[in-house]
Write a structure and sequence with these properties.
mainly alpha; 2 domains; 5 helices; 70% helix
Length: 154
């Protein structure tokens, strides 16, 4: 694949990220935002939409400037770093949202599965195995080993 096609694909991805993130933020404004202390149902989609839009803008800037200026010259992180940050933050947010309704085991498994997407090249099977093993390990350590009163299942 030549550099021109790679640049076009990155620009199309950036446009999709910005469009989906902006749409999420617009839809989120229909719900009460609340405050950080007492979050409303619109705050989380608003924040995720803003994050998705910011990643899209960063990807667009990188795509447009890649061939005229080195990315490191701007002092901004590489796309792989932004991807990793996005998936790790998404995994943590998923854990925070799921821990009470779903329990420790499913929340941990989903968090680990999402975080494996941070680095390309991980297969689905290895991600599922890693998710299961770490969820079991977490349950053994925190619920059975330390004795924390956390539900394992819904």
């Amino acid at each position: 694949m030549d550099a021109s096609n790679d640049r076009d694909e990155n620009l199309i991805s950036a446009i999709l990220f910005v469009a989906i993130g902006t749409a999420a933020m617009i839809i989120a404004t229909d719900y009460p935002i609340g405050s950080l202390r007492r979050m409303g149902p619109g705050l989380f989609p608003l924040l995720l939409g803003g994050l998705l839009t910011a990643v899209g803008i960063g990807l667009a800037v990188q795509s447009l400037l890649r061939f005229s200026l080195p990315w490191s010259f701007l002092g901004l992180p590489a796309l792989a770093t932004l991807r990793a940050m996005f998936f790790v933050m998404l995994a943590l947010a998923a854990f925070a949202v799921l821990i009470r309704p779903a329990g420790l085991f499913p929340a941990t498994a989903i968090m680990v599965f999402i975080s494996t997407r941070a680095e390309p090249g991980h297969g689905i099977v290895s991600a599922l195995v890693l998710s299961f093993v770490l969820a079991v390990t977490t349950a053994l350590i925190f619920v059975y080993g330390i004795g924390l009163p956390i539900r394992l299942w819904p």
